[in-house]
Every structure is written in structure tokens, then in C-alpha cells.
Design goal:
The complex is a heterodimer of chains A (342) and B (520). By secondary structure, chain A is mostly helical. Chain A has 15 helices and two strands. Chain A has one domain: ABC transporter involved in vitamin B12 uptake, BtuC (Orthogonal Bundle). Chain A has a two-stranded antiparallel sheet. Classes of the chains: A mainly alpha (342), B alpha/beta (520). The interface between A and B is medium-sized, with 30 and 38 residues.
Chain lengths: 342, 520
């Protein structure tokens, strides 16, 4: 240790070196976060207020949950383009079931909510089962599999509703899961925290969690080490869909309607959140806590652009550019990693 | 023999001979190549004369492949010069090297399996008329090349329908697409039959007479004698010596190659065969890689599997481990008959297979060394209680293993990809100590590993055997089979050609079974 501190001042470019080390270790996210805060704080006085930041957090909840699922798919070297569809299908099925149970038995509010949530989440997760079976057992590329399922799910959601929003859910559902607060914090935030904690435990404290990294790190090595790669891949896409479905139900509560048109931006945004957070597109690399930051960062940028009154079409341009920038940064980082090593 | 057979009407070859008197055809000056963490080639001085066969000789990882990849333009040097006919040249791409007439035939083929022979021959230089592909001209030109080389191959056949030897012929023929001044052959006979090898040697002779310079990599002493003119020996990326092929004897070559007497690298083995660990009878695999092989391995033994690439020696072990599908045959492991081996269960029973290809099959390069070591035993104590990981104990055990194996640098949180080849191999070896294994299969354990680490690996293997484990050593490196095993099976085309015991395991004995057919 003392050797290192002694040799530090000798280096002329210690600041550049330090920045490089931060870049290699944490990726591009800290830099982007810093830039975003500076830019938006100077554009709008309201940006750095406690209320607005709480707003950002609440709005980012849905993307955060979806991104956690997307991270699993990316960790194993694939990705899931059907997360948006899963949101939509969950919303439509959940709302329909909830509304019809409520209409049949107006007194059994909780029964309606529970049955509705269950049906919605099951429908969404089912998409993941198909994805998982296709990828794990038939060797379909995750790209084709999830792209195909995205079309299937979206079509089903539109077919079930005829394209119109589903009304008639009990008011309590929206009041509690959409707008409810406890100790001044919105309920969706509690849900996200709970999901993140459970997933953290699963990923980093159990052997099955380690297997996600092993399969993405080198699938052949994983196989030769006695890991059931098929089971792991199947789990990946089921869990990813489950996350998206949970987000879909929470979003339905917030909107108070079942919508087939929600979630269209989710595939891109969730992948962007992960990649910006340093999850490798080649699989095997990425940390859960960073992904949460990545999702919040995207929420922050969207919020900032809204406050700065940027047109929504242009916002899409910015988000796409950010994704590409993150991928380029990842490539550059890989080159630096080789020179710094650890 | 008509020496004009292969020449195309171009006068470059004649110019070469004139200049060749003054300058070597191809020369490297202080050529150096660095990879992250390792200097693959260190100040190499090498020269090739027109019309000679210059053999590169050295162990795996000595820098031969690095040298030829730079001469072929597939890789750029970190420092140093390459001179062609006395002129400084920059071989920044394979294409550029080809323009000068430098062509290489690598061990790993650069053929596109879905394309035909003719399409592959002219890949990147397709004959066109008015900007359109002229496939008739292409087939005609391909037939011309093949007939000149006396290769009997159908031009319209797809590459993936050819045998490995035929693919090799296509790869060689590719070099003859344009005029040739330097031909680089990287272990070209490794997968050829005797007849095909003779054919190749006749071709080499013909090229020599046309003043083509040939760089030839081989591990076979007999070949060096047969066609070599000069031999340059490399060791650990450094130039050692250049000697005359006809007058230098085998012992001298081995001494130059290894830098020590053979006995120093290989530890002494004492064998106390115990009970039978693995007994396999008449094993056939799906796809016919193994066609009826039977073996017995006892605890405490080191049994070698020798044979060519693709002879079925690896597939046999993989099939027993559950990593390759079995068609028929019986496998008895530790007295238990196993109908259909599954990797996970075989590991639990105490059967470990360490694959040869570290990068593709063995390690997670972007994950820490710790995870790479513990990966195969995460389902048992001390690594987990079957479900939940015990990270503290994992770190402790892995650290102890890393120390035991002298991992260098001893940092278990560093990504596997940043260790040198030898240390990456140690990560794999450490895996075999993460639980009690009764049988450990080492598949080419020293590929790309330096001599020092190699000795350590051999000691490791012998110690495992002395501690009562049965060892299966699959190796294409003959000295390993000769010096490290007490019994060896020689594989040929999916069958066991011979079983050799103790003193019978000699170089000539093993090699003679590499090719020989049943009738011979």
C-alpha cells in the first residue's frame, strides 16, 4: 500500500489515470450521471428539488424492474425483446380478469385484485416460458425468439381488447398499488426495492444465481462443469418475463386501465439501462446495483428533458443515441481493461 | 518431372533467384510481438533462402505460430522488421503478404464450409466478366490448379462434405491461386494419411526446384530428416539456434528445444495400480467419432491416449464424462454400471474431465479466477449447502488452492483472461482439487504452456496419481505419452489401434500405430 501511495505523485497524469480507472471499474455511468445533472440543473431550477427527484424515482420504478429482468437475459449472453409485449399482455389480461370478477362480485374487492394480478402475471410469465423453451431446448437465437414472441404477445393483447383500453377495475387497486404512499414514499417504490433485494439475494448468495454468470461467461465450460445450462436459460427467460409482468401490473394500477399499447419503449430502454450500467452484451458481466442506477439515470434524463420542454420525439433520439454511446464506451473500456488488468 | 508444371507465366520467380544470391528471400530483424501480459516473440532473427525448406522447431507456445502469423500478414509485430528480397516490407494484412507471393497454410483452416471447393479457392479474388461473377471461368481455373498439384478433388463439392485431409488439400491449393515465392506450412501432415503425406512431400520437392522458399513447422523428427534443409529452434519466444537438418541428431534437437535434458522436465513415476476405476467396453458414439473402443483404467495409474487430431481420443473421454452422446457400449465407473452418463452426475461420482481448449471450453475469461476454480463444485460443501453459497469458505478454499499451485500473480479476483496461458491452465488444474475425484482426465494439459509451468503440471499430475486417483492423459505431444504414462492406448479413426505397456511405449512404437490400418 505505502509503495503505491509513494509512487502516485510521480505520475504526471494522475488525474487522467484516476478517471481512466473509474471508467474501467464503473463504466460510463458515473460520467453520464454527472453530465446529466449539471446540464439539467442549469436548464431548469426545478430539477434538483427533493420533490422532483422523488418523482424521478417513482417514474423509474417500472423501467427499473424490467431492467433487472433484462439484465438476467443479457448476463446469459442473450436478450429479451419481448419485455414490452409482456407488459402489455399482463396489463390487458390482468385488467380484464380483475374487472370481470369485480363486476360479478362487487363486494369481493380483494379477491378481484388477487385473481386479476395472478392472471395478468401468469399471462406475462407464459411468454417467458415460450422464450425460454425456444432458446434453451430448440437453440433458437434469443433475438429471433423474443422478437417473434413480441409479435405474438402484442397481437394477443390487441385481439383480447379490440384495441380499446380495459376499464372497470376496483378503485382500491389503483389507489393502493398505483398512487398509494407509506411514510411519504410511493408503494411502487417499495415493490421495486423488495424485488431488487430478493433478486440480489438470488444472484449473489445462491448457486443458481452464480450459474447465470457461468452460462454467460462460457456456456461450454459451464456444461463441462456439470451445470444444467438448459435449466439456467429457461429460468433466465421465465424470470425476465416475471419481472416485466410485475412491472406491467404496477403500471396498470398507475394507469387505472388495462392498455395494449404500454411498454413499446421498454425493450430499448431496458437494454440501454443495462448497457449503460456496464452489463456486457457478450454475457457474463454486470452488477445488479449498477443496473438500478442505469434505469434511474434514464428516468432522470427523461425527466430533465421534460422539464427543459424538449419535444418528446427528440427525446427518443436522445435515448437511442445514449444507447449507442454506451455500447461504444463498452468497447473502449474493454481495450483499457487489458492495460489495467485489475 | 516437369518443373514448369506449377509456374505461371510470370517472371517474378526468376527475379527472385537473381536477387536471392545477395539477400535472403525473407528475413526478420529483431522481430517482437507482445500480447497483454506475455511476450510471445522476443527479438527474433530468422532468414529464409529461396529453394530451401526451413523447419521451425520448438515446443507448443515457443513462438512459432506467432512468427508465421506475422510473416503471413495475419498479425502485426510490436517492433522489428520484416525484409523481403532485402527490402523492408510492411505485411499489414494477409492480402498484402499474398501480393508478395507469401502464402500460409495454417492448422486452423480458413475455409467456408458451406461453399464449394472452387468458391473457396477463389474467395476474395473471384474471376469476373463485366463486374459479374464468372463461375465457369472460376471452375476451370480451380480445376487447373488442382490438376497441377495432382490433387484429386471435385471442384463443385461443398467443403463440409470433404474429409479433413481433403480440406487440408484445398487449403494448400489456395496458396497456389497466385504466384508463390514463400509457402508457410504449419504442421500440414497432422491429419494426413501416409499416402497424402507422400504426395505433399513430392509437391514440396517440386516447389523447391522452382526456388520457392518453404517454412515448415512440424513436431515429427522423421519429417525433418526427410524434407528439411535447415532448422531454426525457438524456445519461450526466443531464437535459440539454426542448425543443419541433415547433421544434427535427435538428442541435440530435443536439448535445444527444451533447454534441458528430458529427464528434468518429467518427474519420476512410480505406479501402484489399485482397483479398477473405469472400465469401458465397445463404446460407440453418435456420429461415429468412436467406433468400438474398450479400455480399463486403475486407480493410481497414469494412462495415456495417443493419436492424431480427430482419432477419437478426446471424444472417447468426453463420451464417458457425459459431454458427448453415446450410441452403444458399456461404461463401468467405480464398479457402478452407467447407462447414460450425465456430466453433473459423473462429477458427483468423482469423474473430472479438463478440456483441452481453455478459451472455448474451459474458462470464463471475463469472470474472476475464483469463480473459475469453484465452478464445478458449487453444489457441495464447503462451497455451498446445496443451494446457498458460502462465499467466505469459497474465498478461503480458492485462495489455498491458488497458493498450492503457485498461481502467478496470486490474485484470485483477477479475470481469468488476464492470466498467462500457463496460469490459466493452473486455474483448470485447481478445479480437480475442489472435491474428491477418483478419475481425472487431462485433455492436452500443456498446450500453449511454457516449459517451467509444464514441469509443474507434470508434477501435479503425478502427485494426483500417487494420491490414488486414476489419471487419463490425452496428448498429441508425444514426449508426454512417452515419459509420463505407464500404459498407453493409441487411437486411430475411432478405434484403439494398440495398447502399449511400460517399456513398449517408445516413439517409433506409438508413431507406427498413428496411421497403420488393421490390415497392415
Amino acid at each position: 500500500m505505502s509503495n503505491q501511495t509513494e509512487s502516485m505523485p510521480k505520475s504526471k497524469f494522475s488525474l487522467a489515470d484516476l478517471l481512466k480507472r473509474i471508467f474501467v471499474r464503473l463504466g460510463i455511468l458515473p460520467f453520464l450521471l454527472l453530465i446529466a445533472v449539471i446540464v439539467f440543473a442549469s436548464l431548469s431550477d426545478n430539477f434538483l428539488t427533493g420533490r422532483n427527484l422523488m418523482n424521478v424515482l417513482r417514474q423509474s420504478v417500472y423501467l427499473t424492474i424490467v431492467s433487472l429482468g433484462q439484465m438476467l437475459a443479457l448476463l446469459t449472453g442473450g436478450f429479451d425483446l419481448s419485455v414490452g409485449t409482456i407488459l402489455a399482455l399482463t396489463s390487458v389480461v390482468g385488467a380484464t380478469v380483475m374487472a370481470s370478477v369485480y363486476a360479478a362480485m362487487p363486494d369481493a374487492i380483494w379477491l378481484a385484485i388477487i385473481l386479476g394480478c395472478f392472471a395478468g402475471i401468469a399471462a406475462g410469465t407464459f411468454i417467458g416460458v415460450f422464450n425460454g423453451v425456444g432458446v434453451a431446448f430448440f437453440g433458437v437465437s434469443p433475438f429471433m425468439m423474443s422478437l417473434g414472441m413480441a409479435s405474438v404477445g402484442f397481437g394477443l393483447a390487441l385481439f383480447l381488447t379490440g384495441g380499446t383500453p380495459v376499464y372497470g377495475m376496483p378503485e382500491a387497486f389503483g389507489n393502493i398499488f398505483g398512487f398509494g404512499t407509506l411514510f411519504g414514499i410511493h408503494t411502487p417504490i417499495y415493490a421495486a426495492v423488495l424485488i431488487a433485494v430478493l433478486l440480489y439475494f438470488y444472484l449473489y448468495r445462491t448457486k443458481s444465481g452464480r450459474y447465470f454468470y457461468a452460462v454467460g461467461g462460457n456456456i461450454k465450460a459451464a456444461k463441462l462443469s456439470g451445470i444444467s445450462t438448459r435449466k439456467t436459460l429457461l429460468m433466465t427467460y421465465i424470470l425476465c418475463a416475471l419481472m416485466a409482468a410485475l412491472a406491467g401490473m404496477l403500471l396498470t394500477a398507475r394507469l387505472d386501465t388495462g392498455e395494449a399499447n404500454i411498454g413499446a419503449s421498454m425493450p430499448l430502454q431496458s437494454i440501454a439501462a443495462c448497457v449503460i450500467a456496464g452489463v456486457s452484451l457478450r454475457g457474463g458481466v454486470g452488477r445488479l446495483e449498477n443496473v438500478i442506477l442505469g434505469a434511474i439515470f434514464i428516468g432522470l434524463v427523461q425527466n430533465g428533458m421534460n422539464l427543459a420542454r424538449m419535444e418528446s420525439y427528440l427525446q427518443t433520439v436522445v435515448l437511442g443515441s445514449l444507447l449507442i454511446l454506451a455500447v461504444i464506451a463498452d468497447q473502449v473500456r474493454l481495450r483499457y481493461v487489458a492495460s489495467l488488468k485489475d | 518431372m516437369n518443373s514448369q508444371a506449377v509456374t505461371t507465366p510470370d517472371n517474378r520467380l526468376e527475379e527472385d533467384t537473381h536477387q536471392g544470391d545477395a539477400y535472403p528471400l525473407l528475413q526478420t530483424v529483431e522481430l517482437t510481438k507482445d500480447y497483454p501480459g506475455i511476450r510471445a516473440l522476443d527479438g527474433m532473427n530468422f532468414d529464409l533462402k529461396a529453394g530451401e525448406v526451413h523447419v521451425l522447431f520448438g515446443e507448443n507456445g515457443a513462438g512459432k505460430s506467432t512468427l508465421i502469423s506475422m510473416l503471413a500478414g495475419a498479425n502485426t509485430p510490436t517492433s522489428g522488421d520484416i525484409q523481403f528480397n532485402g527490402k523492408l516490407v510492411e505485411l499489414s494484412s494477409v492480402h498484402k503478404a499474398r501480393e508478395l507471393g507469401i502464402s500460409a497454410v495454417f492448422q486452423e483452416f480458413s475455409l467456408i464450409p458451406q461453399m464449394t471447393v472452387a468458391e473457396n479457392l477463389f474467395l476474395g479474388a473471384e474471376p469476373t466478366t463485366h463486374g459479374m461473377l464468372n463461375s465457369r471461368a472460376q471452375i476451370k481455373a480451380a480445376e487447373e490448379i488442382l490438376s497441377k498439384l495432382d490433387f484429386h478433388l471435385p471442384c463443385d463439392k461443398r467443403i463440409d462434405h470433404l474429409t479433413r485431409a481433403e480440406q487440408q488439400m484445398v487449403e494448400i491449393a489456395k496458396a497456389f491461386r497466385s504466384d508463390l515465392s514463400v509457402l508457410i506450412l504449419d504442421e500440414p501432415t497432422a491429419s494426413l494419411t501416409n499416402h497424402e503425406t507422400d504426395q505433399l512431400f513430392r509437391l514440396v520437392d517440386r516447389l523447391k526446384s522452382q526456388n520457392v522458399g518453404i517454412i515448415y513447422i512440424t513436431h515429427r523428427m522423421a519429417e525433418i530428416r526427410e524434407i528439411g534443409d535447415r532448422i531454426t529452434i525457438l524456445r519461450d519466444g526466443k531464437y535459440i539456434d539454426t542448425v543443419d537438418a541433415k547433421t544434427t541428431d535427435d538428442d541435440e534437437l530435443v536439448r535445444l528445444m527444451t533447454g534441458r535434458v528430458v529427464g528434468q522436465i518429467f518427474p519420476k513415476i512410480t505406479v501402484n495400480p489399485g482397483e479398477v476405476a473405469l472400465e469401458v467396453d465397445d463404446l460407440h458414439t453418435v456420429g461415429g467419432s468412436v467406433k468400438g473402443a474398450s479400455i480399463t483404467v486403475r486407480k493410481g495409474e497414469i494412462v495415456g491416449f495417443a493419436g492424431l487430431v480427430g482419432s477419437g481420443k478426446s471424444k472417447f473421454a468426453q463420451a464417458c464424462f457425459g459431454a458427448f452422446d453415446i450410441e452403444s457400449g458399456t461404461i463401468i465407473f467405480n464398479g457402478e454400471k452407467i447407462a447414460k452418463p450425465k456430466t453433473k452426475e459423473m462429477l458427483r461420482r468423482g469423474f473430472m474431465y479438463l478440456p483441452s481448449d481453455r478459451r472455448n471450453d474451459g474458462l470464463m475469461m471475463m469472470r474472476p479466477a475464483r469463480e473459475n476454480i469453484s465452478i464445478a463444485s458449487l453444489d457441495i460443501s464447503p462451497f455451498s449447502n446445496g443451494w446457498m453459497l458460502n462465499k467466505k469458505k469459497e474465498a478461503k478454499v480458492v485462495k489455498a488452492l491458488a497458493e498450492q499451485l503457485n498461481l502467478s500473480p496470486n490474485r484470485v479476483e483477477r479475470d481469468a483472461g488476464f492470466f498467462s496461458g500457463g496460469n490459466q491452465q493452473k486455474l483448470m488444474l485447481a478445479r480437480s482439487l475442489t472435491r474428491e475425484f477418483n478419475l481425472v482426465v487431462f485433455d492436452e494439459p500443456t498446450v500453449g504452456v511454457d516449459v517451467g509451468t509444464r514441469a509443474a503440471i507434470y508434477e501435479f499430475i503425478v502427485e494426483l496419481a500417487n494420491n490414488g486417483a486414476a489419471i487419463l492423459l490425452i496428448s498429441s505431444d508425444l514426449p508426454e505419452i512417452l515419459n509420463l504414462t505407464n500404459r498407453a492406448y493409441v487411437f486411430y479413426q475411432g478405434r484403439i489401434q494398440a495398447e502399449l505397456m511400460g517399456d513398449e511405449i517408445t516413439e517409433t512404437n506409438v508413431l507406427s500405430h498413428f496411421f497403420e490400418r488393421e490390415a497392415a
